[in-house]
């Protein structure tokens, strides 16, 4: 079983990481932490990622490790975060996706972020939206 959690480094996405760990631990599921990065992947992989991307992924990994949850992390490159989330969910055949209701992007919508709305509209598996 696999749980995918998405983060953009916002305070609310940190709550999503906590929720994902809370789901993964009793299910003995693997946690896959991801952050979306606009544009093509650098040739040197994660070593070429910006410090903030590495911090986001490191925070997920350390939180999972502290909770005793198996975890791996990935920066997914693409045109839009919602596309990255859906593609990774399919590629990894995850059972659940956990994400924040809003991130650090533009305001988008009063109640739910536009990336979250797009993900919910297009994804083919359960999504827990953390508020």
DSSP strand count: 5
Q: Which stretches of 5+ consecutive residues score pLDDT under 50?
A: 105-111
Number of helices: 4
Mean pLDDT over the full residue set: 89
Computed CA radius of gyration, to the nearest angstrom: 13 Å
List key phrases describing it.
131 residues; alpha/beta; Rossmann fold; five-stranded parallel beta sheet
List the helices and strands and how they pair.
Layout: E1 2-6, H1 11-27, E2 30-38, H2 51-67, E3 71-78, H3 81-92, E4 96-100, H4 114-122, E5 127-130
Parallel strand pairs: 1-2, 1-4, 2-3, 4-5
Helix pairs in contact: 1-2, 3-4
Describe the structure.
This protein has about 130 residues and is an alpha/beta fold. It has a single domain, classed as 3-Layer(aba) Sandwich (Rossmann fold), CATH 3.40.50. About 40% of the residues lie in helices and about 25% in strands. Strands 3-2-1-4-5 form a 5-stranded parallel sheet, sandwiched between helices. Strand 1 (about 1-5), helix 1 (about 10-25) and strand 2 form a beta-alpha-beta unit. The chain is globular, with a radius of gyration of 13 Å. It starts with a strand and ends with a strand. The model is unreliable at about 105-110 (pLDDT under 50).
Give a brief outline of the structure.
The protein is an alpha/beta fold. It has four helices and five strands.
């Amino acid at each position: 079983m696999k749980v995918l959690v998405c983060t953009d480094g916002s305070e609310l996405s940190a709550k999503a990481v906590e929720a994902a760990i809370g789901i993964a631990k009793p299910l003995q599921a693997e946690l896959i932490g991801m952050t979306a990065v606009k544009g093509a992947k650098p040739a040197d992989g994660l070593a070429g990622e910006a410090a903030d991307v590495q911090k986001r992924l490191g925070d997920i990994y350390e939180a999972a490790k502290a909770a005793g949850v198996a975890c791996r992390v990935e920066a997914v490159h693409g045109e839009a975060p919602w596309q990255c989330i859906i593609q990774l969910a399919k590629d990894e055949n995850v059972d659940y996706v956990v994400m924040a209701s809003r991130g650090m992007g533009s305001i988008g919508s009063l109640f739910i972020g536009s990336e979250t709305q797009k993900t919910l509209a297009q994804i083919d598996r359960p999504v827990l939206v953390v508020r």
